[in-house]
Design brief:
The chain has two helices and ten strands. It has 170 residues and is an alpha+beta fold. β3 and β4 (47-50) form a beta hairpin. The longest helix is centred in the N-terminal third of the chain and has 17 residues, at 3-19.
């Protein structure tokens, strides 16, 4: 392989690593008091997890528990980030905090609700849907503010005009 080939290959790897989601490196955490260990991932650009109290890390890229420690599954306190990128279909990374996202299929826009009632023309997260399932669809844009949609009113008025014109023979 020539030097030029090596530089090209390195450049491709560098570009791919910059453009992809980069999760925190794997690590093992331990609780010296209980003599337990567990896998731990701190998160990525769309979520983060807290290390439980009383636990310490053995450092990044550790894969094995110390001798004499019992490996357990640890329930972590993780939270997603509420932003457009992490709540858009096809993003790389974990699930964001998308519970407050609302979608308008007529205008093909998404927005975060202000916590009040969902404006007309918009729909909120259906009951029971997981965060990973509730994301802004591909091809939709983001709106700063979810304004009530007057789309249905416009169609009704247009229908009345057409019916009125037909009744008058126009």
């Amino acid at each position: 392989m020539t030097t030029m080939d090596k530089l090209f290959f390195f450049g491709i790897i560098l570009i791919f690593s910059i453009c992809s989601a980069v999760p925190a490196p794997p690590e093992i955490i331990v609780n010296g008091q209980t003599r337990q260990c567990a896998d731990f991932m701190a998160g990525d650009e769309c979520f983060s997890c807290e290390m439980p109290s009383g636990w310490t890390s053995l450092g990044y890229n550790t894969y094995e528990c110390p001798q004499g420690y019992e490996k357990i599954e640890l329930k972590l306190n993780c939270s997603g980030f509420k932003n457009e990128r992490c709540c858009s279909n096809g993003h790389s990374g974990g699930a964001g905090a998308c519970q407050d996202m609302i979608i308008n299929d007529v205008t093909k826009q998404c927005a975060f609700s202000d916590g009040g009632a969902v404006p007309s023309g918009w729909k909120g997260k259906p009951g029971g849907a997981e965060n990973a399932q509730w994301v802004c669809p591909s091809g939709y844009g983001w709106s700063e503010k979810a304004e009530p949609c007057a789309c249905a009113t416009g169609f009704v008025l247009l229908g009345l005009v057409v019916l009125s014109a037909r009744a008058k023979g126009i």
